[in-house]
């Protein structure tokens, strides 16, 4: 009984407030939540495609598809929360080095090509210098690009383009992702940089999400020695820019 009581003391309950506690928390939830979630998604996929024979009624495959898609959304949210905690609690998580930028942008564009096509949107990497380099961590830059491209696809009207550029600016390189369509009021940008914040009005209703993307991009950009900024014009669209050091 004493041991059980000790486990519920305030100091024990506040473990995630320390870096050690956050890392222990991540290890625990990574095993206890991610593993069963992957199982749910995998078995729902099997049922959706009726790999072992017909389920007997079309509703069953429909429901299995809903379970699969809901599981994927939950897993995505879970991964984002873990990423946010890691970026906040592990200062040396990202290790930037000087690398060529365009190959990483093209890789990110390919990762999102199927999703963009399904929504009738084009991704246009307008890169003029194939050898442009900067100081970044490949995983960190990938995180930034994945969140920003996904966000841009969600808000780009059908038949329009998501544009990606990378240009030097003095001692820095600016990687910008522009999407036409809906964009938040510029006054809302500082608030939307905080975790779990959502846009107002039509901008909020345009997509599902927990509001972690910009927070993750901001933390990752700063961890690589750069920064993150957003320019928004509600009538024309939004430009999100990741700034990297050149050296």
Structure description:
Mean pLDDT is 86; it is low at 1-16. The protein has helices at 2-7, 10-13, 19-48, 58-89, 102-111, 113-118, 138-155, 189-192, 201-205, 213-223; strands at 97-100, 122-125, 133-136, 161-169, 172-180, 227-233, 237-245. The strands form two sheets. The protein has a five-stranded mixed beta sheet. It is built from ten helices and seven strands. The longest helix is centred in the N-terminal third of the chain and has 32 residues, at 58-89. It folds into two domains: 2-89, no CATH class; 97-245, Histidine kinase-like ATPase, C-terminal domain (Heat Shock Protein 90). By secondary structure, it is an alpha+beta fold. It is globular, with a radius of gyration of 21 Å.
Main pleated-sheet profile: 5 strands, mixed
The figure for the number of domains is 2
**CATH fourth-tier homologous superfamily of the largest domain:** Histidine kinase-like ATPase, C-terminal domain
Spans of at least 5 consecutive residues with low confidence = 1-16
Order of helices and strands: HHHHEHHEEHEEHHHEE
Q: In one word, what is the shape?
A: globular
In short:
With 247 residues, this protein is of the alpha+beta class.
């Amino acid at each position: 009984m004493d041991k059980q009581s000790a486990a519920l003391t305030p100091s024990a309950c506040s473990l995630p407030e320390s870096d050690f506690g956050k890392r222990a928390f991540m290890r625990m939830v990574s095993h206890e939540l991610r593993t069963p979630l992957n199982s749910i998604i995998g078995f729902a996929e099997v049922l959706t495609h009726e790999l072992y024979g017909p389920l007997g009624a079309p509703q069953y495959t429909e429901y299995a598809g809903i379970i699969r898609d809901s599981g994927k959304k939950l897993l995505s949210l879970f991964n984002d929360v873990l990423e946010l905690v890691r970026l906040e609690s592990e200062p040396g998580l990202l290790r930037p080095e000087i690398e060529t930028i365009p190959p990483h942008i093209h890789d990110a564009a390919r990762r999102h090509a199927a999703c963009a096509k399904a929504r009738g949107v084009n991704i246009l990497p307008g890169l003029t210098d194939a050898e442009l380099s900067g100081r970044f961590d490949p995983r960190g830059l990938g995180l930034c690009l994945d969140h920003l491209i996904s966000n841009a696809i969600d808000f780009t009207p059908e038949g329009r383009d998501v544009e990606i550029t990378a240009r030097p600016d003095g001692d820095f390189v600016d990687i910008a992702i522009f999407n036409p369509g809906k964009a938040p009021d510029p006054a809302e940008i500082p608030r939307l940089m905080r975790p779990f914040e959502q846009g107002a009005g039509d901008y909020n209703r345009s997509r599902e999400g927990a509001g972690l993307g910009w927070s993750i991009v901001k933390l990752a950009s700063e961890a690589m020695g750069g920064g993150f900024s957003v320019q928004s014009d509600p009538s024309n669209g939004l430009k999100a820019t990741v700034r990297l050091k050149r050296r």
